[in-house]
Amino acid sequence: MSDETTCGYCPAGYLHCITSRTCIPARSRCDGVVDCPGEADERNCLLISSTGRSVDQMLPLATVDAYPTEGFVFFVEQGMSGKLCAANFQTDIPNEKMTVALQTIATSLCRTLNYHNLTSVEIVDDEDLPTSTSGGSPSERYAHVVDPFASEITFNLGTCPSKKVLRVACDDAVCGVQTNRRQKHGIDGLNKMASHGDWPWHAILYKSGTHVCDGSLISSEWLLTSASCFQG
Which cystines does this chain contain (predicted)? Predict the structure, then answer.
C-alpha cells in the first residue's frame, strides 16, 4: 500500500485509512468505534506533541513520528484535539494530594505511551497557538480531566480560560511491546499486513541502499544484530 498512502481520493472532511481505500469522516477519529482496518482511527487518542499543528497533521492517518519523548499532553475525541488544561490541578495553597494526583496521571500517560519513566511534569502557559483544521474554534480546543482523583481517568473537551496546560517528559522507551496493537493471542494477533508502530523495536540495516540484515532495538542508542552482518 506504499503507493496508496498520499492519494487525494477521499472527499473533503474525510480521512484516509492508509492500508485500504476506505475513507471515514474526521469525526470518526477516536470515537470509540473501529472504522479503519488495523484500528488506525483509534490510535494516538492520547499523545504527546510539541505543537497542536503537528497533531492535526497526523491526518490523514499516515506514518508519523509516533514516539516523541516530551511535549504538551493532547487528547483527541471524535476528530477534535485539545491540549490538557491544567485548571483542575491548580490550587492557591500547596496541596500534597493534588501533587500526587498530577504525578500519577503523568506517570500513567508515559506508561500508556510505552515509556518506563516519567522525567518531568509541569504546568506551563499555552503559547502554542492552536489551529482549527479538525473543527471547533481555538477556545474549544482543550481537554479537562473530569476528576483527578478518580480511579479511572476520563476527559471532557472544553475551554481553558487560564491557558495553563500540562507538559510532560518521558524516558526509557519499552522494547518488545506492540504499541499499536490490542492484546490478542495466537494467530488472531497476526494480520497479513503490518501497520506503522506494530513492531517498533524492529530495524533494518542497509548498505548502499540494499537491505543486508535485520536487527532489534535494545535501547535508544543500541541495536542488536548478527555478527555476520559486519564480516569484511
Answer: 30-45
pLDDT (tens digit per residue) in 155-176: 888 888 888 899 999 988 777 7
Among candidates 19, 22, 5, which has minimal Cα distance to 192? 19
Q: Give the three-class secondary structure for 199.
A: coil
- The C-alpha cell at 83 is 491540549
φ, ψ for residue 58 (rounded to 5)?
A: -75, -5
Question: Grid coordinates standing for 105?
Answer: 496521571
Instruction: Name residue 167's amino acid.
Output: R
Q: How far is the C-alpha of 64 from the C-alpha of 136, rounded, in Å?
A: 24
Residue type for 166, please? L
Percentages helix, strand, coil for the chain (3-state, rounded to 5) are 20, 30, 50
Q: Could you report the per-residue pLDDT of 7-32, keeping only the tens digit for each?
A: 677 888 888 877 677 888 888 988 88
What's 11's DSSP letter?
P
Strand partners, 225: 215
